[in-house]
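User: structure tokens for this one?
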Amino acid sequence: MRVCSCKTRAAHRSRTLLFVHLAAGAAIALAALLFFKTGLRFWPCALHRLTGLYCLTCGATRAVGALLSLDLALSAALNPVPLLLVGFWLLVVLFEAAQALRGRDRPFRWLVPCVVFILVCAGIFCVLRNVGVLPPL
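Assistant:
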């Protein structure tokens, strides 16, 4: 019977989480790259068609395409949510890498504040676009 110390288990868990985050990010990036390079497109926004209002995700598909082209300014202008999500993902990966290097297993305490920040930014962006402060898509 093998007995693992808490530090060894924590280091193993941190390395596993880091691997999962990196693998998920690579899979999402590959899927998005294939999606945009093959010329496929999503349907237009149903809410915008019915009401004329922009939703929280209007422009997000084109923003991801701009991110893949490394055009950060265009991506932020189309919809800042994908850019914020990539930044948040990088923050989590860096945190997990630091935890793996230290052999620790501490929870990421900034998860809820980061998600709330992204949702608030998306809501503000949506309102500003719908009242005409920001240019339409």
